[in-house]
Amino acid sequence: MTCRGCKRLTRCWLILATGVAGAGVMCVELLGARLVSVVYGGSVAVWGAMISVTLLSLAAGYFGGGYLADRVPAPRMVALVVSAAAVLIVVASHARPVLAAYRSLLGWHWGALAGCASLFLLPLALLGMVGPFAIRLLHDSAARAGRTAGTICAVSTLGGVAGTLLTAFWLVPTVGVSTGFRLTALVMAVTGGIGLFIHARPCTAIVLALPLLLGFVPDAGLRAGFTGMAPDGDRICVETVRDSMHGRVTVLRKGAYRLLLIDGIVQTGMPLDRSHLEKGTGLLDGYYQELLPYMVDDPGTCRALVVGLAGALTPAILAGYGMTVDCVELDRTVEEAAKRWFGFTGAAIVADGRQYLESCDKAYDFCVLDVYSGDVLPAHLLSVEAIRAAKRVLNPRGVLAVNYVGEPSGAAFACVIGTLQHVFPEVVAIRSEAGNDVQPITILAAERAIDFNNGWLAHLSGFSGVDPVSEAIERLRVRPLPARGFVLRDDHNPIDTLRVPAAVRWREQTQVRLGLVGL
Known about the structure:
This protein folds into two domains: 3-214, Growth Hormone, Chain: A (Up-down Bundle), CATH 1.20.1250.20; 276-498, Rossmann fold (3-Layer(aba) Sandwich). Helix content is 52%, strand content 15%. It contains 18 helices and twelve strands. The chain has helices at residues 3-40, 44-71, 75-92, 96-106, 108-138, 145-175, 177-199, 209-214, 281-284, 313-320, 332-341, 353-359, 384-392, 411-423, 456-459, 468-476, 495-498, 500-514; strands at 227-229, 235-243, 248-254, 257-262, 265-271, 303-307, 324-329, 348-350, 364-369, 394-406, 426-431, 439-446. Helix 1 (3-40) packs antiparallel against helix 2, helix 1 crosses helix 6 (145-175) and helix 6 (145-175) packs antiparallel against helix 7 (177-199).
Protein backbone atom coordinates (compact mmCIF):
# COMPACT_ATOMS: atom_id res chain seq x y z
CA MET A 1 0.00 0.00 0.00
CA THR A 2 1.34 3.46 -0.88
CA CYS A 3 2.15 6.02 1.78
CA ARG A 4 -0.82 8.05 0.58
CA GLY A 5 -3.05 5.01 0.90
CA CYS A 6 -1.77 4.42 4.44
CA LYS A 7 -2.59 7.98 5.40
CA ARG A 8 -6.10 7.65 3.96
CA LEU A 9 -6.65 4.39 5.85
CA THR A 10 -5.35 5.93 9.07
CA ARG A 11 -7.59 8.95 8.61
CA CYS A 12 -10.67 6.78 8.05
CA TRP A 13 -9.86 4.63 11.07
CA LEU A 14 -9.30 7.66 13.34
CA ILE A 15 -12.66 9.11 12.33
CA LEU A 16 -14.26 5.70 12.97
CA ALA A 17 -12.60 5.48 16.39
CA THR A 18 -13.82 8.99 17.22
CA GLY A 19 -17.42 8.09 16.40
CA VAL A 20 -17.20 4.80 18.31
CA ALA A 21 -15.76 6.60 21.34
CA GLY A 22 -18.55 9.19 21.26
CA ALA A 23 -21.17 6.44 21.06
CA GLY A 24 -19.40 4.50 23.81
CA VAL A 25 -19.52 7.46 26.20
CA MET A 26 -23.30 7.75 25.93
CA CYS A 27 -23.83 3.98 26.05
CA VAL A 28 -21.77 3.74 29.22
CA GLU A 29 -23.51 6.76 30.78
CA LEU A 30 -27.01 5.39 30.19
CA LEU A 31 -26.17 1.78 30.98
CA GLY A 32 -24.18 2.90 34.03
CA ALA A 33 -27.10 4.88 35.40
CA ARG A 34 -29.35 1.84 34.97
CA LEU A 35 -26.79 -0.43 36.64
CA VAL A 36 -26.48 1.93 39.60
CA SER A 37 -30.25 2.45 39.86
CA VAL A 38 -30.79 -1.23 40.67
CA VAL A 39 -28.83 -0.70 43.90
CA TYR A 40 -29.46 3.00 44.65
CA GLY A 41 -32.78 3.74 42.98
CA GLY A 42 -33.54 5.88 39.96
CA SER A 43 -33.81 9.25 41.67
CA VAL A 44 -32.40 12.50 40.31
CA ALA A 45 -29.52 12.11 42.79
CA VAL A 46 -28.36 8.91 41.06
CA TRP A 47 -28.56 10.53 37.64
CA GLY A 48 -26.72 13.54 39.04
CA ALA A 49 -23.91 11.27 40.26
CA MET A 50 -23.60 9.50 36.91
CA ILE A 51 -23.70 12.69 34.85
CA SER A 52 -21.14 14.37 37.14
CA VAL A 53 -18.77 11.42 36.83
CA THR A 54 -19.19 11.43 33.05
CA LEU A 55 -18.35 15.13 32.77
CA LEU A 56 -15.39 14.85 35.13
CA SER A 57 -14.12 11.83 33.20
CA LEU A 58 -14.34 13.62 29.88
CA ALA A 59 -12.58 16.68 31.27
CA ALA A 60 -9.74 14.49 32.53
CA GLY A 61 -9.66 12.58 29.24
CA TYR A 62 -9.54 15.75 27.14
CA PHE A 63 -6.67 17.14 29.19
CA GLY A 64 -4.73 13.87 29.45
CA GLY A 65 -5.35 12.98 25.83
CA GLY A 66 -4.10 16.32 24.59
CA TYR A 67 -0.96 16.08 26.72
CA LEU A 68 -0.20 12.50 25.70
CA ALA A 69 -0.95 13.16 22.02
CA ASP A 70 1.77 15.83 21.92
CA ARG A 71 4.29 13.47 23.51
CA VAL A 72 3.41 10.26 21.61
CA PRO A 73 1.50 11.22 18.43
CA ALA A 74 0.98 7.66 17.20
CA PRO A 75 -2.25 5.99 15.98
CA ARG A 76 -1.39 2.83 17.93
CA MET A 77 -1.89 4.84 21.14
CA VAL A 78 -5.51 5.48 20.13
CA ALA A 79 -5.97 1.77 19.48
CA LEU A 80 -4.55 0.90 22.89
CA VAL A 81 -6.73 3.50 24.62
CA VAL A 82 -9.92 2.21 22.96
CA SER A 83 -8.99 -1.42 23.71
CA ALA A 84 -8.27 -0.62 27.37
CA ALA A 85 -11.62 1.16 27.68
CA ALA A 86 -13.34 -1.94 26.25
CA VAL A 87 -11.77 -4.15 28.92
CA LEU A 88 -12.80 -1.79 31.75
CA ILE A 89 -16.34 -1.47 30.44
CA VAL A 90 -16.97 -5.20 30.34
CA VAL A 91 -15.54 -5.47 33.86
CA ALA A 92 -18.06 -2.84 35.02
CA SER A 93 -20.95 -5.07 33.97
CA HIS A 94 -20.00 -7.47 36.79
CA ALA A 95 -19.60 -4.80 39.47
CA ARG A 96 -22.97 -4.70 41.26
CA PRO A 97 -21.49 -6.17 44.49
CA VAL A 98 -19.00 -3.28 44.49
CA LEU A 99 -21.89 -0.81 44.36
CA ALA A 100 -23.59 -2.52 47.29
CA ALA A 101 -20.32 -2.38 49.26
CA TYR A 102 -20.05 1.38 48.69
CA ARG A 103 -23.64 1.75 49.85
CA SER A 104 -22.86 -0.02 53.12
CA LEU A 105 -19.66 1.96 53.63
CA LEU A 106 -20.61 5.48 52.53
CA GLY A 107 -24.40 5.59 52.56
CA TRP A 108 -26.73 6.15 49.67
CA HIS A 109 -25.72 9.49 48.14
CA TRP A 110 -21.94 9.37 48.59
CA GLY A 111 -21.99 5.65 47.89
CA ALA A 112 -23.70 6.25 44.54
CA LEU A 113 -21.15 8.92 43.61
CA ALA A 114 -18.20 6.79 44.71
CA GLY A 115 -19.60 3.74 42.93
CA CYS A 116 -20.08 5.64 39.66
CA ALA A 117 -16.57 7.09 39.92
CA SER A 118 -14.83 3.81 40.72
CA LEU A 119 -16.52 1.92 37.89
CA PHE A 120 -16.75 4.47 35.11
CA LEU A 121 -14.27 7.29 35.71
CA LEU A 122 -11.33 5.54 34.05
CA PRO A 123 -13.05 3.99 31.00
CA LEU A 124 -14.89 7.23 30.25
CA ALA A 125 -11.66 9.21 30.63
CA LEU A 126 -9.97 6.86 28.18
CA LEU A 127 -12.77 7.43 25.68
CA GLY A 128 -12.41 11.17 26.22
CA MET A 129 -8.75 10.92 25.15
CA VAL A 130 -9.65 9.76 21.63
CA GLY A 131 -10.81 13.17 20.37
CA PRO A 132 -7.64 15.13 21.25
CA PHE A 133 -5.51 12.33 19.80
CA ALA A 134 -7.50 12.34 16.55
CA ILE A 135 -7.22 16.11 16.21
CA ARG A 136 -3.48 15.98 16.79
CA LEU A 137 -2.94 13.16 14.32
CA LEU A 138 -5.20 14.58 11.59
CA HIS A 139 -4.01 18.16 11.93
CA ASP A 140 -1.72 18.84 8.95
CA SER A 141 -1.72 22.63 8.61
CA ALA A 142 -2.67 25.72 10.55
CA ALA A 143 -5.10 26.67 7.81
CA ARG A 144 -7.12 23.48 8.42
CA ALA A 145 -6.93 23.36 12.23
CA GLY A 146 -10.46 24.63 12.76
CA ARG A 147 -11.91 22.30 10.13
CA THR A 148 -10.11 19.31 11.64
CA ALA A 149 -11.26 20.10 15.19
CA GLY A 150 -14.81 20.74 13.97
CA THR A 151 -14.94 17.44 12.09
CA ILE A 152 -13.75 15.45 15.09
CA CYS A 153 -16.20 17.20 17.45
CA ALA A 154 -19.06 16.63 15.00
CA VAL A 155 -18.23 12.95 14.48
CA SER A 156 -17.93 12.40 18.25
CA THR A 157 -21.26 14.14 18.86
CA LEU A 158 -23.04 12.20 16.11
CA GLY A 159 -21.61 9.02 17.59
CA GLY A 160 -23.02 10.09 20.96
CA VAL A 161 -26.46 10.59 19.40
CA ALA A 162 -26.29 7.14 17.84
CA GLY A 163 -25.15 5.60 21.14
CA THR A 164 -27.95 7.29 23.05
CA LEU A 165 -30.69 6.15 20.69
CA LEU A 166 -29.25 2.65 20.37
CA THR A 167 -29.03 2.22 24.14
CA ALA A 168 -32.42 3.70 24.99
CA PHE A 169 -34.42 2.10 22.18
CA TRP A 170 -32.69 -1.24 21.72
CA LEU A 171 -29.92 -2.29 24.12
CA VAL A 172 -31.74 -1.81 27.42
CA PRO A 173 -35.24 -3.06 26.49
CA THR A 174 -34.07 -5.84 24.17
CA VAL A 175 -30.86 -7.37 25.53
CA GLY A 176 -30.56 -5.83 29.01
CA VAL A 177 -27.95 -3.80 30.84
CA SER A 178 -25.26 -6.45 31.30
CA THR A 179 -25.38 -7.59 27.69
CA GLY A 180 -25.52 -3.96 26.63
CA PHE A 181 -22.21 -3.34 28.39
CA ARG A 182 -20.69 -6.36 26.70
CA LEU A 183 -21.86 -5.38 23.23
CA THR A 184 -20.55 -1.86 23.76
CA ALA A 185 -17.19 -3.28 24.85
CA LEU A 186 -17.19 -5.65 21.87
CA VAL A 187 -17.60 -2.82 19.35
CA MET A 188 -14.78 -0.87 20.97
CA ALA A 189 -12.56 -3.95 21.21
CA VAL A 190 -13.01 -4.64 17.50
CA THR A 191 -12.29 -0.98 16.70
CA GLY A 192 -9.15 -1.07 18.84
CA GLY A 193 -8.12 -4.40 17.35
CA ILE A 194 -8.39 -3.03 13.82
CA GLY A 195 -6.19 -0.12 14.79
CA LEU A 196 -3.60 -2.39 16.36
CA PHE A 197 -3.61 -4.61 13.32
CA ILE A 198 -3.00 -1.62 11.05
CA HIS A 199 -0.57 0.42 13.12
CA ALA A 200 1.25 -2.08 15.32
CA ARG A 201 2.33 -5.65 15.08
CA PRO A 202 -0.67 -7.67 13.92
CA CYS A 203 -0.24 -10.12 16.79
CA THR A 204 -0.98 -7.34 19.29
CA ALA A 205 -4.57 -7.30 18.03
CA ILE A 206 -5.05 -10.35 20.21
CA VAL A 207 -5.87 -7.93 23.06
CA LEU A 208 -9.44 -7.76 21.76
CA ALA A 209 -9.86 -11.34 22.94
CA LEU A 210 -9.75 -10.19 26.57
CA PRO A 211 -13.09 -8.34 26.62
CA LEU A 212 -14.55 -11.15 24.53
CA LEU A 213 -13.51 -13.70 27.15
CA LEU A 214 -14.66 -11.49 30.02
CA GLY A 215 -18.04 -11.25 28.34
CA PHE A 216 -18.66 -14.92 29.11
CA VAL A 217 -18.19 -14.45 32.87
CA PRO A 218 -21.59 -14.94 34.59
CA ASP A 219 -23.24 -11.72 35.72
CA ALA A 220 -23.36 -10.99 39.45
CA GLY A 221 -26.59 -10.19 41.29
CA LEU A 222 -30.12 -11.48 40.98
CA ARG A 223 -30.86 -13.65 37.98
CA ALA A 224 -33.44 -16.23 37.01
CA GLY A 225 -32.94 -19.37 39.07
CA PHE A 226 -31.32 -17.59 42.03
CA THR A 227 -32.47 -18.96 45.37
CA GLY A 228 -31.92 -17.66 48.87
CA MET A 229 -33.47 -17.22 52.28
CA ALA A 230 -35.19 -14.10 53.61
CA PRO A 231 -34.50 -13.01 57.21
CA ASP A 232 -37.99 -14.20 58.24
CA GLY A 233 -37.15 -17.74 57.06
CA ASP A 234 -39.12 -17.68 53.80
CA ARG A 235 -37.38 -19.21 50.81
CA ILE A 236 -36.81 -16.84 47.89
CA CYS A 237 -36.62 -18.01 44.27
CA VAL A 238 -36.11 -15.59 41.38
CA GLU A 239 -38.33 -16.57 38.46
CA THR A 240 -37.36 -13.95 35.89
CA VAL A 241 -35.24 -10.82 35.51
CA ARG A 242 -35.75 -8.50 32.56
CA ASP A 243 -34.55 -5.01 31.74
CA SER A 244 -37.08 -2.67 30.20
CA MET A 245 -36.90 0.94 29.10
CA HIS A 246 -38.14 1.98 32.53
CA GLY A 247 -36.44 -0.33 35.03
CA ARG A 248 -35.20 -3.81 35.87
CA VAL A 249 -38.27 -6.00 36.30
CA THR A 250 -37.81 -8.97 38.65
CA VAL A 251 -40.36 -11.59 39.64
CA LEU A 252 -39.63 -13.78 42.64
CA ARG A 253 -41.41 -16.17 44.96
CA LYS A 254 -41.20 -15.55 48.69
CA GLY A 255 -42.96 -18.12 50.81
CA ALA A 256 -46.60 -18.19 49.79
CA TYR A 257 -46.35 -14.96 47.75
CA ARG A 258 -45.10 -13.92 44.36
CA LEU A 259 -43.51 -10.46 44.26
CA LEU A 260 -42.92 -8.03 41.42
CA LEU A 261 -39.90 -5.78 41.89
CA ILE A 262 -38.76 -2.84 39.78
CA ASP A 263 -35.18 -1.74 40.40
CA GLY A 264 -35.15 -3.75 43.62
CA ILE A 265 -38.35 -2.27 45.12
CA VAL A 266 -41.48 -4.38 45.63
CA GLN A 267 -44.38 -3.10 43.54
CA THR A 268 -46.81 -5.97 44.14
CA GLY A 269 -47.18 -8.94 46.47
CA MET A 270 -49.73 -11.51 45.30
CA PRO A 271 -50.60 -14.78 47.06
CA LEU A 272 -49.71 -17.83 44.99
CA ASP A 273 -53.14 -19.19 45.84
CA ARG A 274 -55.40 -16.54 44.30
CA SER A 275 -58.37 -17.95 46.18
CA HIS A 276 -56.96 -16.03 49.15
CA LEU A 277 -58.00 -12.81 47.40
CA GLU A 278 -61.38 -12.93 49.11
CA LYS A 279 -63.45 -9.82 49.66
CA GLY A 280 -62.20 -7.74 52.58
CA THR A 281 -59.04 -9.73 53.30
CA GLY A 282 -56.83 -6.95 51.91
CA LEU A 283 -58.25 -4.60 54.54
CA LEU A 284 -57.11 -6.91 57.29
CA ASP A 285 -53.59 -6.71 55.79
CA GLY A 286 -53.66 -2.91 55.61
CA TYR A 287 -54.26 -2.73 51.85
CA TYR A 288 -56.61 0.24 51.97
CA GLN A 289 -57.17 0.64 48.24
CA GLU A 290 -59.74 -2.08 48.89
CA LEU A 291 -61.85 0.55 50.67
CA LEU A 292 -63.10 1.82 47.31
CA PRO A 293 -65.85 -0.80 46.84
CA TYR A 294 -67.19 0.10 50.27
CA MET A 295 -67.78 3.73 49.26
CA VAL A 296 -70.73 2.80 47.02
CA ASP A 297 -73.86 0.71 47.46
CA ASP A 298 -73.30 -1.53 44.44
CA PRO A 299 -69.69 -1.78 43.24
CA GLY A 300 -70.81 -4.17 40.50
CA THR A 301 -72.22 -1.21 38.57
CA CYS A 302 -69.03 0.85 38.82
CA ARG A 303 -66.16 1.44 36.43
CA ALA A 304 -62.61 1.98 37.70
CA LEU A 305 -59.42 3.24 36.08
CA VAL A 306 -56.09 1.99 37.47
CA VAL A 307 -53.03 3.95 36.31
CA GLY A 308 -49.99 1.79 37.03
CA LEU A 309 -50.53 -1.95 36.59
CA ALA A 310 -47.53 -3.54 38.37
CA GLY A 311 -48.62 -7.08 39.33
CA ALA A 312 -52.31 -6.24 38.83
CA LEU A 313 -53.28 -6.70 42.49
CA THR A 314 -55.57 -3.66 42.62
CA PRO A 315 -57.34 -4.56 39.35
CA ALA A 316 -57.83 -8.12 40.63
CA ILE A 317 -59.32 -6.91 43.91
CA LEU A 318 -61.66 -4.38 42.27
CA ALA A 319 -62.75 -6.89 39.63
CA GLY A 320 -63.52 -9.31 42.46
CA TYR A 321 -66.27 -6.90 43.54
CA GLY A 322 -67.72 -6.92 40.03
CA MET A 323 -66.23 -3.62 38.85
CA THR A 324 -65.28 -3.02 35.25
CA VAL A 325 -61.58 -2.11 35.39
CA ASP A 326 -59.46 -0.33 32.78
CA CYS A 327 -55.70 -0.40 33.31
CA VAL A 328 -53.02 1.93 31.97
CA GLU A 329 -49.36 0.86 32.08
CA LEU A 330 -46.38 2.59 30.48
CA ASP A 331 -44.05 -0.41 30.53
CA ARG A 332 -45.01 -3.29 28.24
CA THR A 333 -42.56 -5.56 30.07
CA VAL A 334 -44.55 -5.02 33.27
CA GLU A 335 -47.78 -5.86 31.46
CA GLU A 336 -46.22 -9.08 30.16
CA ALA A 337 -45.03 -10.00 33.66
CA ALA A 338 -48.49 -9.33 35.09
CA LYS A 339 -50.05 -11.68 32.57
CA ARG A 340 -47.48 -14.45 32.82
CA TRP A 341 -46.80 -14.51 36.55
CA PHE A 342 -49.72 -12.79 38.31
CA GLY A 343 -52.77 -14.07 36.48
CA PHE A 344 -53.74 -10.79 34.85
CA THR A 345 -56.23 -11.59 32.08
CA GLY A 346 -57.31 -8.13 31.04
CA ALA A 347 -55.86 -5.82 28.42
CA ALA A 348 -53.79 -2.93 29.70
CA ILE A 349 -53.59 0.24 27.67
CA VAL A 350 -49.86 0.76 27.09
CA ALA A 351 -49.55 4.53 27.39
CA ASP A 352 -48.30 7.29 29.64
CA GLY A 353 -50.80 7.79 32.46
CA ARG A 354 -50.87 11.58 32.14
CA GLN A 355 -51.44 11.40 28.41
CA TYR A 356 -54.31 8.95 28.89
CA LEU A 357 -55.96 11.09 31.57
CA GLU A 358 -55.83 14.15 29.34
CA SER A 359 -57.21 12.39 26.25
CA CYS A 360 -59.65 9.90 27.81
CA ASP A 361 -63.32 10.27 26.81
CA LYS A 362 -64.67 7.79 29.39
CA ALA A 363 -66.14 8.56 32.82
CA TYR A 364 -65.13 6.52 35.86
CA ASP A 365 -66.43 6.08 39.39
CA PHE A 366 -62.90 5.51 40.69
CA CYS A 367 -59.43 6.43 39.51
CA VAL A 368 -56.37 4.90 41.18
CA LEU A 369 -52.93 6.47 40.71
CA ASP A 370 -50.35 3.84 41.63
CA VAL A 371 -47.51 4.94 39.42
CA TYR A 372 -44.23 4.10 41.09
CA SER A 373 -41.29 2.86 39.06
CA GLY A 374 -39.11 1.33 41.74
CA ASP A 375 -38.95 4.05 44.38
CA VAL A 376 -39.41 6.88 41.86
CA LEU A 377 -42.74 8.72 41.80
CA PRO A 378 -43.14 10.36 38.35
CA ALA A 379 -43.53 14.07 39.00
CA HIS A 380 -45.71 14.71 35.95
CA LEU A 381 -48.41 12.46 37.42
CA LEU A 382 -48.59 14.26 40.75
CA SER A 383 -48.79 17.91 39.77
CA VAL A 384 -51.94 19.96 40.15
CA GLU A 385 -52.41 19.77 36.37
CA ALA A 386 -52.28 15.95 36.52
CA ILE A 387 -54.74 15.85 39.42
CA ARG A 388 -57.14 18.06 37.45
CA ALA A 389 -56.80 15.66 34.52
CA ALA A 390 -57.67 12.78 36.86
CA LYS A 391 -60.68 14.69 38.17
CA ARG A 392 -61.82 15.25 34.59
CA VAL A 393 -62.29 11.50 34.02
CA LEU A 394 -64.32 11.04 37.24
CA ASN A 395 -68.08 11.15 37.63
CA PRO A 396 -69.38 13.94 39.92
CA ARG A 397 -69.34 11.53 42.88
CA GLY A 398 -66.17 9.78 41.74
CA VAL A 399 -63.19 9.15 44.01
CA LEU A 400 -59.48 9.49 43.29
CA ALA A 401 -57.13 7.16 45.19
CA VAL A 402 -53.37 7.81 45.31
CA ASN A 403 -50.86 5.26 46.56
CA TYR A 404 -48.11 7.28 48.23
CA VAL A 405 -44.99 5.91 49.93
CA GLY A 406 -43.38 8.27 52.41
CA GLU A 407 -43.56 9.79 55.85
CA PRO A 408 -46.97 11.03 57.07
CA SER A 409 -45.16 13.97 58.65
CA GLY A 410 -42.77 14.66 55.76
CA ALA A 411 -42.58 17.76 53.58
CA ALA A 412 -43.22 15.73 50.41
CA PHE A 413 -46.42 14.26 51.86
CA ALA A 414 -47.56 17.75 52.87
CA CYS A 415 -47.07 18.94 49.28
CA VAL A 416 -49.05 16.00 47.90
CA ILE A 417 -51.90 16.71 50.33
CA GLY A 418 -51.82 20.42 49.49
CA THR A 419 -51.95 19.65 45.77
CA LEU A 420 -54.93 17.33 46.18
CA GLN A 421 -56.75 19.83 48.41
CA HIS A 422 -56.23 22.46 45.73
CA VAL A 423 -58.45 20.37 43.42
CA PHE A 424 -60.75 18.37 45.75
CA PRO A 425 -62.60 19.70 48.82
CA GLU A 426 -62.45 16.33 50.62
CA VAL A 427 -59.13 14.54 51.22
CA VAL A 428 -58.51 11.60 53.57
CA ALA A 429 -55.18 9.81 54.17
CA ILE A 430 -54.85 6.40 55.83
CA ARG A 431 -51.40 5.08 56.69
CA SER A 432 -50.61 1.38 56.69
CA GLU A 433 -49.10 1.30 60.18
CA ALA A 434 -48.96 3.46 63.29
CA GLY A 435 -46.23 6.07 63.58
CA ASN A 436 -44.55 8.44 61.16
CA ASP A 437 -41.95 6.16 59.62
CA VAL A 438 -41.84 5.77 55.82
CA GLN A 439 -44.72 3.54 54.72
CA PRO A 440 -47.48 3.16 52.09
CA ILE A 441 -50.28 5.69 52.57
CA THR A 442 -53.61 5.52 50.76
CA ILE A 443 -54.94 9.01 49.98
CA LEU A 444 -58.58 9.41 48.93
CA ALA A 445 -59.93 12.61 47.35
CA ALA A 446 -63.42 13.49 46.16
CA GLU A 447 -66.01 16.21 45.73
CA ARG A 448 -68.23 14.44 48.25
CA ALA A 449 -67.81 13.28 51.82
CA ILE A 450 -65.49 10.30 52.10
CA ASP A 451 -67.13 7.59 54.19
CA PHE A 452 -67.51 3.80 54.12
CA ASN A 453 -70.55 1.59 54.42
CA ASN A 454 -68.85 -1.11 56.55
CA GLY A 455 -69.88 -3.72 54.00
CA TRP A 456 -66.85 -5.78 54.92
CA LEU A 457 -68.84 -7.04 57.91
CA ALA A 458 -70.82 -9.16 55.46
CA HIS A 459 -67.66 -10.56 53.87
CA LEU A 460 -65.53 -11.16 56.93
CA SER A 461 -66.73 -13.23 59.85
CA GLY A 462 -65.48 -14.18 63.25
CA PHE A 463 -65.30 -10.70 64.74
CA SER A 464 -65.84 -10.51 68.47
CA GLY A 465 -66.26 -7.05 69.88
CA VAL A 466 -64.81 -4.15 67.91
CA ASP A 467 -64.79 -4.32 64.10
CA PRO A 468 -61.01 -4.43 63.42
CA VAL A 469 -61.28 -2.76 60.00
CA SER A 470 -63.22 0.24 61.31
CA GLU A 471 -60.89 0.45 64.28
CA ALA A 472 -57.81 0.38 62.04
CA ILE A 473 -59.18 3.06 59.72
CA GLU A 474 -59.91 5.33 62.66
CA ARG A 475 -56.56 4.66 64.34
CA LEU A 476 -54.42 4.98 61.22
CA ARG A 477 -56.15 7.95 59.63
CA VAL A 478 -53.74 10.89 59.39
CA ARG A 479 -55.10 13.68 61.58
CA PRO A 480 -54.69 16.54 61.18
CA LEU A 481 -53.62 16.59 57.58
CA PRO A 482 -50.46 18.67 57.10
CA ALA A 483 -51.11 22.24 56.02
CA ARG A 484 -47.60 23.54 55.32
CA GLY A 485 -47.06 22.01 51.89
CA PHE A 486 -47.09 24.00 48.67
CA VAL A 487 -48.97 23.08 45.51
CA LEU A 488 -46.95 20.97 43.07
CA ARG A 489 -47.14 22.34 39.54
CA ASP A 490 -45.68 21.25 36.22
CA ASP A 491 -43.24 24.17 36.28
CA HIS A 492 -42.22 23.61 39.92
CA ASN A 493 -42.49 20.05 41.15
CA PRO A 494 -39.54 18.97 43.33
CA ILE A 495 -41.35 15.87 44.61
CA ASP A 496 -38.44 13.62 43.58
CA THR A 497 -35.96 15.71 45.58
CA LEU A 498 -38.29 16.06 48.57
CA ARG A 499 -38.79 12.29 48.71
CA VAL A 500 -35.11 11.35 48.58
CA PRO A 501 -34.62 10.66 52.33
CA ALA A 502 -37.83 8.62 52.55
CA ALA A 503 -37.08 6.78 49.29
CA VAL A 504 -33.62 5.87 50.56
CA ARG A 505 -35.01 4.43 53.81
CA TRP A 506 -37.77 2.58 51.98
CA ARG A 507 -35.28 0.97 49.62
CA GLU A 508 -33.04 -0.02 52.51
CA GLN A 509 -35.93 -1.49 54.52
CA THR A 510 -37.21 -3.40 51.50
CA GLN A 511 -33.87 -4.98 50.66
CA VAL A 512 -33.18 -5.88 54.29
CA ARG A 513 -36.64 -7.42 54.63
CA LEU A 514 -36.11 -9.54 51.52
CA GLY A 515 -32.51 -10.40 52.32
CA LEU A 516 -31.31 -8.81 49.07
CA VAL A 517 -28.68 -6.49 50.55
CA GLY A 518 -25.46 -6.84 48.59
CA LEU A 519 -27.13 -8.29 45.48
